[in-house]
From TrEMBL, chain A:
This is Potassium-transporting ATPase potassium-binding subunit. The chain crosses the membrane at residues 6-27, 64-85, 133-154, 175-193, 258-276, 283-302, 374-398, 418-442, 499-519, 539-559. Its main location: membrane. Belongs to the KdpA family. It is found in: Cell membrane. Part of the high-affinity ATP-driven potassium transport (or Kdp) system, which catalyzes the hydrolysis of ATP coupled with the electrogenic transport of potassium into the cytoplasm. This subunit binds the extracellular potassium ions and delivers the ions to the membrane domain of KdpB through an intramembrane tunnel. It comes from Danxiaibacter flavus. The system is composed of three essential subunits: KdpA, KdpB and KdpC. It comes from the Bacteria. Pfam families: KdpA. Keywords: Cell membrane, Ion transport, Membrane, Potassium, Potassium transport, Transmembrane, Transmembrane helix, Transport. It is a multi-pass membrane protein.
From TrEMBL, chain B:
Part of the high-affinity ATP-driven potassium transport (or Kdp) system, which catalyzes the hydrolysis of ATP coupled with the electrogenic transport of potassium into the cytoplasm. This subunit is responsible for energy coupling to the transport system and for the release of the potassium ions to the cytoplasm. ATP binds at residues 350, 354, 379-386, 398. The gene is kdpB. This is Potassium-transporting ATPase ATP-binding subunit. The keyword Magnesium applies. The system is composed of three essential subunits: KdpA, KdpB and KdpC. SUPFAM superfamilies: Calcium ATPase, transduction domain A, Calcium ATPase, transmembrane domain M, HAD-like.
Amino acid sequence: MNTEITGIVVSFLLTVLLAFPLGKYIAKVFNGDRTFTDFMNPLERFIFRLSGIDPNKKMNWKEFLKAMLTINLVWFVYAFFMLLYQDKLPLNPDGNPGQTPDLSFNTAISFLVNCNLQHYSGETGVTYLTQTLVLMFLQFVSAATGIAALIGLLNGIKEKTTNNLGNFWKIFVKTITRILIPLCIIMAVIMAFNGSPTSYKGKDTITTYQGDTVSVSRGPVAGFVAIKHLGTNGGGWFGTNSAHPLENPNYLTNMVEIIAQVLIPVAMLFAMGFYIRRKKFAYVVFGVMTIGMLCLLIPTVVTELNGNPEIAKMGIAQPTGAMEGKEVRFGPAASAYWSIVTTIISTGSVNSFHDSSMPVSGAMQLLGMMVNAFYGGCGVGFLNYYIYIIIAVFISGLMVGRTPEFMGHKVEAREVKIAALVTLLSAFLIKGGVALAAYFVAHHPDIAWAVKPSAWLNNPGYHGFSEMLYEFTSANANNGSGFEGLGDNNTFWNVSTGFVLILARFIPIIGPIAIGGILANKKYIPESAGTLKTDSLTFGVMTFAVIVIITALSFFPALTLGPLAEYFQIGR
Amino acid sequence: MKRSKNTSSLLSKELVAPALAQSFVKLDPRMMYRNPVMFTVEIGTTIMLFITAYSYSANDKSVGNFGYNLTIFTVLFLTLLFANFAEAIAEARGKAQADSLRKTREDTPAKKVSAVGEIFTNEIHIVPSSKLRKGDMFICEAGDIIPMDGEIIQGLATIDESAITGESAPVIREAGGDKSSVTGGTKVLSDKIKVRVTTEPGESFLDKMIALVEGASRQKTPNEIALTILLASFTLLFIIVCVTLKPFADYANTTITIAAFISLFVCLIPTTIGGLLSAIGIAGMDRALRANVITKSGKAVETAGDIDTLLLDKTGTITIGNRKATHFWPAKNIDSKTFVEACVLASLADETPEGKSIIELANINGASFNTRDAKFVGFTAETRSSGIDMPNGIRIRKGAFDSIRNIVVRAGNSIPSETELKVKEIASNGGTPLVVSQNQQAIGVIELQDIIKPGIQERFERLRKMGVKTVMVTGDNPLTAKYIAEKAGVDDYIAEAKPEDKMNYIKKEQAGGKLVAMMGDGTNDAPALAQADVGVAMNSGTQAAKEAGNMVDLDNDPTKLIEIVEIGKQLLITRGTITTFSIANDVAKYFAIVPALFISSIPALQALNIMHLKSPESAILSAVIFNAIIIPLLIPLSLRGVAYRPIGASALLRRNLMIYGVGGVIAPFIGIKIIDMILGLFF
């Protein structure tokens, strides 16, 4: 087999091999079983005492959400002002300026919601203080928020009938102390030993062989990169993210980063199986998600390896595939794999430039984010999948002649209403956003704004449309990767994507938790031969069909005008 | 059983004409808004009407040409009419069914009893039945038609209920007890009864049912509401899709006509299920009515599909009426012919079904015996045996084992051990042994057995595959009950059941999250009927029982519960499959319309026109036409319901997903292509 393909297969297999024991461990942590990290107990108790939290207080779904949303609001305010006034704060060796209010708004939200859409460049837009105490801090807590939300939902599924989704604070703190910090330490060490900087000194200057001087930004990169991937955040230390040689020095670190970003999302699925004692259900979900991933991955790898037909028309051979926008040390296959992984699981870090991907790859990356539930982000991946499950349960329940039920609870009008709203949300935010942007580009290209709409797009036509579509899709998926080529650091994009980010983060968390809470409160109905088994292959196929149909119905016209039109135009 | 009225064709002439008229009446937006999907179609059609008018008067190229707009408008209008027609025809069928029941009870003369009359007390006047009010009293004599539903307060009568049940054998109804209810429209064959009216005119179960079908008071069932929400949100989704398409098209420098926008929108929203949804619900109640079951709400039919536990009375449901003699077991040394003759002699005067069955089994003509001077000894609670004293001094007795043993032992004889053994064997097989003695000597045993209805095992097997647990309720002792339960294949039984046992069992099951259905007739069943999630009262039952249940079975057939469960399941399945079909259709419609919209400005998108439709205009028109005609094509399916197959939930899902999901993706590709080819012949 082609070594590039082998690299992908090995990366994926390693991920699954590591995720399985990790999942078992995570289930133990939240079950309160003994684990080797119990030495963290005193630290956790100290945190609870310091913050006046009773970690044993039970919470119903409303209290659970209240706790989660309140603390998120606090973090937002904190991050916003820190970024706004970073120039006046210490640890700014390169003398970077404070952010403008709209950029600060966008950045604070973007990191708060685990998206990390970066409308600035790390070298010049932030300081070491805000990189570590704001952005890195948010990378930890946003990942932990997602995981805590999932555990809350699972607490509802686990019991026959309950009001209690568990204590948000306790789950949240344990996620950080028992899962994120230990894993990050391991990864940071690997990164540091492979050449990622871990210094607080400012820019360094090197003289090249040609005699030019180049100043090179640095900082405590290794630790940042660890949580960036483990927490499916994706916000890079440097502007060019993991394509930067100091952020992703070699093929080994590339593999480590790829594995790290999928690790927790996959482990959470296995953890779910152990935690709610329905292993088969977890395996079916894992299977559906994996097939979904493969459906996106295979076309991407194939087209990238085949090279660009426009270049081929010029009579240039492309033995290594489409190399535009890719790093030579990774190659097109590993870049293709990364581009799919980073879009399906909402990391949004990049090691190549998606703007330069072939149209088919662009479509696959967009689809990955539109579905946003093939593994998905830390914790929130399954929350998104859960919404699809509710709709699949409802329709298939009818098809077998029984009022639909999921895990022993009847799915009725209220739950369907919430699930339908959440499903509608992505279509509304993405298409609404793109429609607004397209409207300005088409009708008011020269409106008197700091950056005129006519100057937004690097490319005209379909590719320009894809750039706008990608930006809003990325914001809606809380992904954070950029198609780039879009002039996005201006009021329109900062504010519009900022709102998309908040809504697309919290409504898809609130929805599933509310459904889970309402369902958990209902009378438990034991399974019978007439009950639809949700852990069966058939139901897995049904869920997959629902995902495909809903995504296709929502986005087909937009995809047609963007990547599909481009694909048909440049020929095959 | 006569069921001629149930075989009327789905779309008979007398139903279609009024339904067509109703289709127009139902265009009234005040009625339409109840159905969000079709309401948006109506708005779209109205806009299209204005556009058509505008394109006729003004020469504005951006709205397209008049002829094309008019065609689109017509097709959209037809879509609306088709959906309304589906609902109207379902209503008409239900109404026709109910009317045929109601016709029997229209204004019959009633002999009303006035407690304080003009001259006498308890004076009798003839009044039209419509003048009777709740609480009024009337009398009926042989040959009278009972004018109103009521309860017998005095007397006993044989009544012909064939008008409502189709069952020709007359039934006996009497005051007090569990068979005191009479139904309007039935005929008294003998005797005289005094009846108290129990319902106000227009409020009988049948009237309520007709109102339910007619729509005014029809309330959406919980499941229908949930589905409507889902469909409404799909509609919203496509509003978003269509609205945002405008700036997208502007960006791509493409003009899209309003006709194209509205066509795309109407095609995409789930009009198929939206148009058929209420028809499916009505048809569910209608199917119940065809099974001679009156439902008091649509919800009850829906709930029936979810039933987990069925409580069934043994007698009449699982077994045929009474026990029957199945075997003669003579004792050793006794000639089998002699024994049989003795048995027959002892049963000659026995009028109980058991006694008759003994003679039947012996296959001997009782009249061939000379019993002129014989003395028959009837059954008494004291002796618990019966028999005959022949003139020649032979005394034969038959009875329960302990009573015969008393007779035998008292005379100084003993029961042969093999007879005793046989008695035990029969009892443990669920039978009832009758021991026969001749001159204080035990001469053998007659075995009586409950006869399990043929085919009942298969029905229980079918129920088990549906996931429904069956529970037999019987007054028998636990040993017999267990045996019959096993033989009939029920999952559980309640032996020596008292009315409160049923109640407790229902409560216990419900506490475990199960939904329970039961059938009952007596007043003492009423609390249990009310407690059960689906309580089916027999029409012959007391008023209290009928009030307590949420369905009334006109046939008084205890196996009806099984049919009701299937009707409920069928209702949900029909909704689910047509929803799936409707949504799956959208894939093909996208492939028809989206390339058509953009092909002029982006010729590369011709590659997406995988159906090779002739022109953008004909592509859009074909999609809209397909969208419209699929509704009438599916009307028969929604009225008849998708067949339920007890093959397990996963297998059923696979099957329906293949037929309606995959089929729903493929069918419109073929349909739209064919329509496009036909349109190609004209343009």
